[in-house]
Amino acid sequence: MKTTRLILFATLLFSGAFFSQACNDSAGDAIGAPCDHDDHCPPGGKCLNDSKFPGGSCSVSCNSHDQCPPHTACIDTKGGVCLPVCGHKSECRGGYDCESQKNRSGGGKTSVCIND
Questions:
Q1: Among 64, 75, 79, which residue's Cα sits nearest to residue 32?
Q2: Tell me, what's the pLDDT at 107?
Q3: Residue-level pLDDT at 44
Q4: Which residue from 102, 107, 108, 115 lies 20 to 30 Å from 64 (Cα-Cα)?
Q5: Is residue 2 scored above 50 in pLDDT?
Q6: What is the separation of C-alpha 111 from the centre of its chain, rounded to a whole number of angstroms?
Q7: Cβ–Cβ under 8 Å, residues 30 and 40
Q8: Helices (H), 28-96
């Protein structure tokens, strides 16, 4: 079980690092990473930091899933933001739950890491 979580975490971390590196050579930033300010996030990103995002969470604005990096989804909160997709709370960082949220476009819901 621990090995599976570690592999999943590494996959999510790599995909976020790949996305941010493709946009700017800032490989440490990723969607869902902790942040205090927008400048702690990928270029064009923003730091979500209210009660739904304890410790802050880097994101980017979106109107549909195809505007989000791999393993993230466009959720209808804060005007549309990309958040890490999950199947269980263990896949989210501390302080976050895996919650079903309304998609920004196309209807339906997707489970993402958020504290809702």
A1: 75
A2: 82
A3: 87
A4: 115
A5: no
A6: 11
A7: no
A8: none
